[in-house]
Amino acid sequence: MNVPEKMKAAVLTSPNTFEIQKVNTPNPGPTDVLIGVETCAVCSSDVSLIAKPWVGQPPYGEFIPGHEYAGRVIEVGETIDEFKVGDRVAVEAHLGCLRCINCRRGNYTACLNYGNTKKGHRANGFTTNGGYAQYVVNHVNTVHRIPDSLSFDEASLLTNLGCVLYGFETIGGYIVGDHVVVVGPGPLGLISVQVAKALGAGRVYLIGTRESRLKVGGDIGADLVINANEEDPLKAIHDETGGIGADVVVESSGGSGALQMAIQMTKRMGKVLLLGVPHEPVLLDLENLLQENKSIHTVRGEGWANCARAVSLWSSGKVNLKSLVTHSFPLDEISEAFETFTERIGGAIKVVVNPSRD
Amino acid sequence: MNVPEKMKAAVLTSPNTFEIQKVNTPNPGPTDVLIGVETCAVCSSDVSLIAKPWVGQPPYGEFIPGHEYAGRVIEVGETIDEFKVGDRVAVEAHLGCLRCINCRRGNYTACLNYGNTKKGHRANGFTTNGGYAQYVVNHVNTVHRIPDSLSFDEASLLTNLGCVLYGFETIGGYIVGDHVVVVGPGPLGLISVQVAKALGAGRVYLIGTRESRLKVGGDIGADLVINANEEDPLKAIHDETGGIGADVVVESSGGSGALQMAIQMTKRMGKVLLLGVPHEPVLLDLENLLQENKSIHTVRGEGWANCARAVSLWSSGKVNLKSLVTHSFPLDEISEAFETFTERIGGAIKVVVNPSRD
Amino acid sequence: MNVPEKMKAAVLTSPNTFEIQKVNTPNPGPTDVLIGVETCAVCSSDVSLIAKPWVGQPPYGEFIPGHEYAGRVIEVGETIDEFKVGDRVAVEAHLGCLRCINCRRGNYTACLNYGNTKKGHRANGFTTNGGYAQYVVNHVNTVHRIPDSLSFDEASLLTNLGCVLYGFETIGGYIVGDHVVVVGPGPLGLISVQVAKALGAGRVYLIGTRESRLKVGGDIGADLVINANEEDPLKAIHDETGGIGADVVVESSGGSGALQMAIQMTKRMGKVLLLGVPHEPVLLDLENLLQENKSIHTVRGEGWANCARAVSLWSSGKVNLKSLVTHSFPLDEISEAFETFTERIGGAIKVVVNPSRD
Amino acid sequence: MNVPEKMKAAVLTSPNTFEIQKVNTPNPGPTDVLIGVETCAVCSSDVSLIAKPWVGQPPYGEFIPGHEYAGRVIEVGETIDEFKVGDRVAVEAHLGCLRCINCRRGNYTACLNYGNTKKGHRANGFTTNGGYAQYVVNHVNTVHRIPDSLSFDEASLLTNLGCVLYGFETIGGYIVGDHVVVVGPGPLGLISVQVAKALGAGRVYLIGTRESRLKVGGDIGADLVINANEEDPLKAIHDETGGIGADVVVESSGGSGALQMAIQMTKRMGKVLLLGVPHEPVLLDLENLLQENKSIHTVRGEGWANCARAVSLWSSGKVNLKSLVTHSFPLDEISEAFETFTERIGGAIKVVVNPSRD
Fold first, then answer.
1. Other Cβ atoms closer than 10 A to B241
2. What's the rounded Cα separation, in Å, for the pair D179 and C331?
3. Low-confidence ranges of chain B (pLDDT < 70)
4. Do the chains contact at D200 and C199, CB–CB below 8 Å?
């Protein structure tokens, strides 16, 4: 395929400032794939890292963010037979160094050489260039073929779905018949509702305050939505579970009191899966956690190859995230895309950028 | 409720011989429930134990077999508030002693005091009286309320569904996107197909020889059925999985060469779940098992409270075992029921007896 | 054996007030053992519950606390063949109801019928009478035979050792070569040091402020003790682990900043085992927990039959808790015992009461 | 360091025939380490693969076997800061491709690209050159620094110790207080005895027929050795465990009836760890396995980075394998070394070759 030497990319030039530039198109190494980006979705971590650089982030003027993307294979490295030119693909963000003790045990999203590119670590969109560009290079481990039935816009949410699956695998992965509460109807929360149902959860409850998102939650499969502005969620879960509490509570709101509430509404011996990061330190009463033998689990990224499982779930039709992609913009309008996402303009849930659109 | 002093029961009086007798209706103890049996299904272990008594089985003339049953709560013991008279319920077979080290760790179907009724162990239909009778007493741990949408005939298969779920939990419980092969389209095999799909398996393959049962397997959700009389199953799975093999192979046929085949078609690091018991010792080449880091798992009964999960799965409509119950008989015709089951008369899969029918 | 009708017991008559009374000696039921108490140790939960009653606690004037005890079998219930009169035994506190979903899955210390004696739950010293008495009745599940090599005073710490083992099993149980930090050299912390070494941990670090207890920690097996008054523990662990952090951090101090410190010094993907309860809500920055894929685990009591494992470890000589029992008192001086424990008079670590001593 | 262009190596030139040749010294790539081999131990898989090539093995005349070795770092690749020249090291054999789904999940000894060097897989001594030479190149993932207290001869057994640890981790890793039976006092069996003790097993039984090796087993820590020529091992274990059976049975003899015996002597719900490969298919009665809910686990190689744990265990003095290395030879006498090993001349257990000795 004819790859141009220069490509269009959104380069982060200073805090919260993207500049659309012509830069060199990257070349794939022996274990890499060159992807022509069709869609790159805006993630709340993008919002955070363009405001203030994260650990390992390249300097202003050199860095192209964006870690949630999908597109077409344009070129493959010399050892690659897993993909061929033209394949429709989506990606995950984290390539570990593959040599530290965490990577060796399969925990590559918790790589101990995070940001050390010399040793092989890459996290496209975090420590190496990402998808707000026409082309991007990915290590073979981070690329997944997607079915024709899946649009690039929806497929760009792969890391989201992979992350939620990784979360459920982290807490045991077997939740048939369990009561699952999801706090916070943001993208990860809404996906958690779908995944919980797909894994056979008994009853799935969604707690939030924004009526429009709660409605999406109901459409997407929640058995009961609870508007915390209208009723006490703790009492509601207590009543729904016969006073026992939920087997699993997924806290994805990042609200300051949400973790405390999540702990309280978890059953004895139950598990809290923490997906939302509070911006400030939170005040936490730990007595109930200890007295009732509960645990708090977190996940970084989309580990243990759960993106492969995610693609399978999508292919089977058991999850459908179309309704989450509410807005799309050309690459030139990336700033509008970010504003739409952060300000939730027009009921925005996930906002995507389409670098291939001109 | 008015409980008669005498009830009708099928008493095992000698090998393979049932006698319909009038016997004393049992009384529930403080932690028990008295159930009026609507349906009791014939299991292949029934066929085995009526031919030759199993360990811990009561003597001829005193024993009422039958461990797969459903019915209505007639009376409850003095500590029971989990159930009330009139509840529609189904049961599991194994009540552990609740005091041995296995029971204390939750492994009650592997109770170390199996058959020791003095110490509290009961396995209705194996070591204590079961469901081929109008009434039966069950410890509260072994009783599950069922939804109105579920017929007693279907609900009598609770232990089957619980056993398969226990099997999947035993091998990790998290199979999203995995390739699963099921060998043998008997009741447990067909249920395994449904459970694998309900847990999010990627592709489910069913291998058998009986065309009528393979058809049921396709209807019930298998992505591909393979008739071993027509093609080489090992080659078929090899081709379907790109030469890699299946993540999980459920062997439920009990065929003499089936375990060897199951091992060969399992992926490196994959798992074999053995649900079928070969009647004779089998010849096994273990080299591949070791070279490729595979494991063989078994389950006894329906452990780890998986019957509760089973009821949830049923309630959600994700499994539907109606088509497996092919024949039903009144209690008086229990011998015909067994014959229909063992001879597979009329394409019999599961055959049930209805003690309440007169 | 000749059991007197009346026995001496320390009855809790009002907040923080014990009265030594003559009360009826209890009778063992069919699944119980009557124990003649030789030693009952003071636990910090005793201090808490005599000040303000815990959930499910019997009323003042009727309740005999004490849950850490050892003694001799005096009488056995009619189904008991696990023990015989004269056996030297120690106990665990929690008997679940054995019928709720948690108990059925082996999680009896998280029984959903906690405090419901009608349904079978007992927690001697919490919801039913305990060991600050000459005699006490225990269900067979909660009794363990101890070797002659083990004194009653040391054996009274069984629940402590069982609890720590349960904690290590909860976080995976396999820590060969791992770096383990223990925060807080109280009884559970010091036992954690020994258990970590006994399970093959690579390096065990103990952090505290009280020089005398840190010295015990060194004697008992810690590879390095860190006095937080003299150096920055976070920096020390950072340096010792090459900047990576510890695989496991056991927080047993209950200090207000301790959990935050524990999280910070844990490796990516590492685990915090929380054994100490802060008295007040703590302020917690969760960002590092999420960014680095860490988890927080707690344990209630001495679950999963770990007391049986504890006795084995003691018998092998791999743990030795003699040095933790620093003071003993006759039952009549129980108030002095509590004062010695809470005020840490004479460097008290564990303080015991000997009801058999007169 | 001055590395000669040519080195001495034992090249496999035809079945069972080594030729000592001068060949090119290999060069380390960017992620590699060049090791000067001090000791390379003979393994029974060497005996098998020199007789008949294994899958992926290089052709006669080009292949240097040997996968159990230790030595000194001579040169490091450009990205290496984990090691420096002069470090004393030992190795593991398996480097996965690091890109297949098994490798990504940490299961690199079960790499799906086994033998595919283009994709990055290497297994020194199996599919790439090994340690029967003066120098060898290892990927950084497969190299471990060893303490000065450990001789090269003992350290060459690293994969053995790593394999046994991997086996114990595979069956859960937490065996405190458990009864463990080891069948077969070969190298892996004897190491299993030590590892079981180091992990806190309650009682460890060793079964064999060769008195001299059983004696080593007793010296190395077995609580009881059982000579199968003198007593019935099944009865012995039955009696020792009060009729319950062992929690874990490690079968490392490869004997034709050994797996059947191992199954029978395992407790209900217990686990068989199969380390020995029978040369011929074995006849197996599976009924007990199923009725009693047992499982059979195997391991390939020394996975999940257990070699790092192995080095820690060695450093702590908790295992000591010195007595297993019974014979050593210079490289020139490699054929004598193999003969000594296979014929067990002079009571040989492990036989090593020392390429640095002249």
1. 17
2. 39
3. 1, 358
4. yes
Subunits adjacent to chain A (3 or more Cβ pairs under 8 Å): B, C, D
Collapsed DSSP state (helix, strand, coil) of residue D193:
helix
Inter-chain CB proximity D104 and A305 less than 8 Å: yes
Give the nearest chain C residue to A252 (CA atoms).
Answer: C290
Cα separation, D294 vs A299, in Å, equals: 33
Tell me if C302 sits within 8 A of C167, measured CB to CB. no
| Cβ distance of C177 and D309 shorter than 8 Å | yes
3-state secondary structure of A40: strand
Dihedral, CA atoms, A106, A110, A112, A114, nearest 10 degrees?
120
Closest CA to A197 of D348, D285, B312, D337: B312
Return the partners of chain C (3 or more C-beta pairs < 8 Å).
A, B, D
pLDDT (0 to 100) of residue D189: 98
Instruction: Say if CB C102 and CB A293 are below 8 A apart.
Output: no
SS3 (DSSP) at A302: coil
Dihedral sign for Cα B65, B69, B74, B76, please. Answer: positive
Long-range CB contacts for residues D282-285, cutoff 8 Å, separation at least 24: D282/B283, D282/B284, D282/B286, D282/D256, D282/D257, D283/B281, D283/B282, D283/B283, D283/B284, D284/B281, D284/B282, D284/B283, D284/B284, D284/D259, D284/D260, D285/B281, D285/D260
Q: What per-residue confidence (pLDDT) applies to C293?
A: 97
**Cβ contact C174–D176 (<8 Å):** no
Q: Which residues on chain C are in Cβ contact (under 8 Å) with B140?
A: 99
**HEC string of A156-212?**
CCHHHHHHHHHHHHHCCCCCCCCEEEEECCCHHHHHHHHHHHHCCCCEEEEEECCHH
CA–CA separation, B40 vs B331, rounded Å?
A: 9
The C-alpha R_g of chain C, in whole angstroms, comes to: 20
Q: Closest partner residue to D106 among A104, A140, A308, by Cβ? A: A104
Q: For chain D, first and last CA: distance in Å?
A: 20
- Which residue does chain A place closest to D307, by CA atoms? A101
pTM for the model stands at: 0.98
**3-state class of C198 per DSSP?**
helix
Note whether C286 contacts A293, CB cutoff 8 Å. Answer: no
Cβ separation B267–D294 shorter than 8 A: no
- At A279, is the pLDDT very low, low, confident or very high (cuts 50, 70, 90)? confident
Mutation site for D-interface testing, chosen from C176, C199, C267 by largest number of D Cβ within 10 Å: C176
**With an 8 Å Cβ cutoff, are B173 and A177 in contact?**
no
Q: What share of chain A is helix, strand, coil (3-state, %, to 5)?
A: 30, 30, 40
CB-nearest partner of D308 from A98, A101, A106: A101
**Contact residues on chain C for D176, CB-CB shorter than 8 A:** 165, 173, 198-199, 306, 309, 312-313
| Chain A residue with Cα closest to D80 | A119
**In 10 A of CB A209, how many CB atoms?**
15
pLDDT in tens, A164-218: 999 999 999 999 999 999 999 999 999 999 999 999 999 999 999 999 999 999 9
Q: What is the C-alpha to C-alpha distance for residues C33 and C335, in angstroms, rounded to an integer?
A: 28
Chain C residues with beta carbon closer than 8 angstroms to that of A268? 102, 107, 110-112, 114, 300
Q: What is the mean pLDDT of chain D?
A: 97
CA of A90 to nearest chain B CA: how many angstroms apart? 16
What's the alpha-carbon Rg for chain A, to the nearest Å? 20
Q: What tokens were used for B258?
A: 């089936």
Strands (E), chain C: 6-14, 17-24, 32-41, 68-76, 88-91, 94-95, 122-123, 135-139, 143-145, 179-183, 203-208, 224-227, 246-251, 266-274, 282-284, 295-298, 325-330, 350-354
Q: D79 and A119 in contact by Cβ < 8 A?
A: yes
